[in-house]
Amino acid sequence: MSDTGLVPVAEKVGALAAEHAQEADRTRKLSPEIVAAVREAGFARHFVAKSYGGSEGGFGELTQAVMAVGEGCASTAWCASLTALSARYATHLPQLGHDELWGSDPDTFVVTAQPPLGKAATAQGGHRLSGRWAYVSGVDFADWALLCGMVATEGEPEARFFALPRKDFTVVEGWDNAGMRATSSHIVVVDDVFVPEHLSFLRADFISGRNTTSSLPAHNAPFQAVGGLTFVAPAVGAAYGALNAATNAMRGKKVNITQGADLCRASAQIDSARFLVEQNAQVLDERTFTPRLMARCERNAAFTAETLVDAVGALVRAAGTSGFSESSPLQRFWRDIVSASSHVALRYETAVVRTWPAALIGE
């Protein structure tokens, strides 16, 4: 596992985020202090090449750091995870694109909208892009957005990603979810913007992990092995936060056998969830991209999400009425974990469509 020093700094970010979490949940926005802390910690530059001042970190280290932040605030961890991995996706851009994104600042905040909801027309030297993308997490403080759109060709239309600076897109507030409230997962609108060729790449390269610009190992990993990890690691961290909150709520009270059993079972579920997430990160760092292991990564992510929902439900039951107090972080962690686990990348249906059962039975 790489060691860029991100994890111990992330633990401090998590502690700071915990102090601001209630206010972030109320206002539906991370404070400038927390955004600055995430940036200064090195999440945005974690996968950026050292030649641009980046860290060239690995997946295992990022996963540990994201979980550490999630223990204090799930929304902060979600945004930290997304900006790190969005920068990794942006490394598929041509070299001039790297220069433009990171030439003056390795801590550029990049966000991503993966569904190909935009439409682009070929123009001299690039494309003209229009579209509307929902649920673009972290967009309130994004420097660049990586947006996917369809391009008409003589044959089948092709999906491409387009990198746009903040001045070229509009943000429409539309995130009203009961959980993960402070992720700023709003709507991005683009109206006929020219995107030069060096700020675009094929979605097929993003999916396969083939990077024609960078040979760094972390820049050449298939999305199938990465996707679920992005979203489930913050939830695992939040589950540890929920466990701490539940035990604090029960401290000094008489605990019956049912409450004790719920607490015991939930703690085991959370530890096992962490193991499966770390297993996924190990596959990425060791670069063992066999069909069977990539199928396991998707299964692990879906199972972990399901397990965490079950575990945090048990913690809420064990803590009783006090756990639902507005002042209790337990109810916030509960809402955040249930919300995060609903992401399409964490569903069994997604894993089945892409890999199962053929990857396991050899078809």
From TrEMBL:
Stated name of the protein: Hydrolase
Domain Acyl-CoA dehydrogenase C-terminal: 229-347
Gene3D superfamilies reported for this sequence: Acyl-CoA dehydrogenase/oxidase, N-terminal domain, Butyryl-CoA Dehydrogenase, subunit A, domain 2, Butyryl-CoA Dehydrogenase, subunit A, domain 3
InterPro entries (UniProt xref): Acyl-CoA_DH_C (IPR013107), Acyl-CoA_Oxase/DH_mid-dom_sf (IPR046373), AcylCo_DH-like_C (IPR036250), AcylCoA_DH/ox_N (IPR013786), AcylCoA_DH/ox_N_sf (IPR037069), AcylCoA_DH/oxidase_NM_dom_sf (IPR009100)
This protein's UniProt keywords: Hydrolase, Oxidoreductase
GO MF, one annotated term: hydrolase activity
Domain Acyl-CoA dehydrogenase/oxidase N-terminal: from-to ranges: 18-83
